[in-house]
Write a structure and sequence with these properties.
The protein has about 140 residues and is of the alpha/beta class. It has a domain of about 80 residues: Nucleotidyltransferase, domain 5 (2-Layer Sandwich), CATH 3.30.420.270. It is about 35% helix and about 15% strand. Helix 3 packs parallel to helix 5. The radius of gyration is 26 Å and the shape is elongated. The termini are far apart.
Amino acid sequence: MFADQQSKRRVALDLSPLLDVVFLLLIFFLVTTTFMPDAGMELELPESTTATESEMAPAIVSVTEDGAISLDGESVTLEELQRAVAALPEAERQKVTVRADARVGYGVIVGIIDALRNAGVTGLSLPMDAVQAAGQRSPR
């Protein structure tokens, strides 16, 4: 007689407290996470009076003052850069951003652009700091 009553009883596990904790942890990490797209290298970008705002490409090549090259934060040589970019999916190869220090030699930049073109990159973005032209007033 007791066996029949116990077999009909179902055990219910309440998942509400568990879900509350999971969502609180998710919110905590979203709020406290710092997103730093330019982390890793301190660069002094060139200045331009005609600079316009544009989106950063999925693949970012950075070049320091001493000519050190990195692709998405990982140090690479010019040959490795070409191989790594060629291995990227086609969508990421459509546009690459080249962030170079203002003091980098012209030949280094030309070599990087040449390697990117050989790897199949069709669009390049060269970010720079916008400055006011002499004699122009800054917008208020």
